[in-house]
Amino acid sequence: MKDKLNYAVVGLNLGLEHVVSILKNPRAVLVGCCDLSVERLADAAHVAAKMGANPEKIIFTDKYEEILASKEIDAILIALPTSLHTDFSIKAMEAGKHVFCEKPLAESLEQALKIRECVKKTGKVFQMGYCVRSSAFHKKCLEIINGGSIGKVTNVWWNMFANYKDTGWRADRKCHGGKLFDCGCHYLDILTLWAGAAPLRVCAFGNPLGATGPNKNDLPEIVSVIIEFENGVKASFNLSQHSVNCQGSTCGVAGTNGKIEGDPYYPEKSGSLNVHANGGLYKYNIVINGEMASQGHLGFNEQHDTFIDAVFKDIPPACSVDEGIKNEYLLHAIDRSITEDRVVYLQEISG
Length: 351
Ligand SMILES: NC(=O)c1ccc[n+]([C@@H]2O[C@H](COP(=O)([O-])OP(=O)(O)OC[C@H]3O[C@@H](n4cnc5c(N)ncnc54)[C@H](O)[C@@H]3O)[C@@H](O)[C@H]2O)c1
Known about the structure:
Elements: E1 5-10, H1 14-24, E2 28-34, H2 38-50, E3 59-61, H3 64-69, E4 75-78, H4 85-94, E5 98-101, H5 109-122, E6 126-128, H6 136-147, E7 153-161, H7 178-182, H8 184-195, E8 199-207, E9 222-229, E10 234-240, E11 248-255, E12 258-263, E13 272-277, E14 282-287, H9 302-312, H10 321-340, E15 344-345, H11 346-350
Helix pairs in contact: 1-2, 4-5, 5-10
Bound molecules: nicotinamide-adenine-dinucleotide (NAD).
The site of nicotinamide-adenine-dinucleotide has 22 residues, from loops.
């Protein structure tokens, strides 16, 4: 029986980081790379050679059809702008390939549902790149929550600080552009897992910095979101996209008997946690040793293990298409709440 997964990576900006993860993984083989840019293809060939792979055994092409037609390729990793996820994922599954697609799922709910239809029709494995789910940081938080030492969860939070302007497709709200959606989607996903229930309703405010009032057509850069979950847990998510002096995140979980304060991007490590448990009886700090991917994405390498297990061992992927769609509902509810200046119930989006 086959024990190595033959991958092709399509889109070689973030995709180059996937190339590295695949080359490092003993259960993965890189057999194809596709990008419209000749320079990016050359970068991938260079990285592959540097990491000990033979570039002559890898297909480097600007034509996706060549990747689809290759019998050698088992799985396609799609790291393209979000607006291309639907078309490329569907073509891959119809060509008999498993798909690992970057987040967010698609630029519209209609397209997201088309991907799900195709997953069901073809029976192929489909995993989404919500990499933080696969991180030791998140898993440790979940372990503490489920261990019960902080009591029943009441609140979860994530504060995100960044300092850059979005350009290209990332500046287009329709494509889930902007830090709130393009990057915040990871943390909104994690907050949902820590809350342990589906979101019920959201209230969100946000506007571009410097605007004198709400600017409904632009990307929200300063944002506050409150989510209430079906079990009563409340989440707060704050974004400041103009934090010159502070970049990164702080996050946490409060329960009826304690709390966890998290520093997910603790320098050079894979996160650190301050835990106050059993009503303050125990206070301890955990520093998570682990390998960070080159651009510092939590859980980036680990997510490939779950994908490979999903293909070979028939276990659920780290983030399924259904979970990706639930995240889409939340992103759309937040967007609607900001745009329409009101509380939005998830049911209005999911129907
Ligand atoms: N998991 C994470 O933490 C994380 C981080 C960054 C980006 N992402 C996601 O990854 C995806 C890609 O992001 P990015 O920053 O690499 O985008 P990007 O626009 O910088 O790069 C996309 C690459 O795809 C190539 N490309 C575009 N159209 C193509 C086509 N038709 N055929 C072949 N190649 C094509 C481009 O030449 C470019 O090299 C997005 O969905 C983004 O949200 C995820």
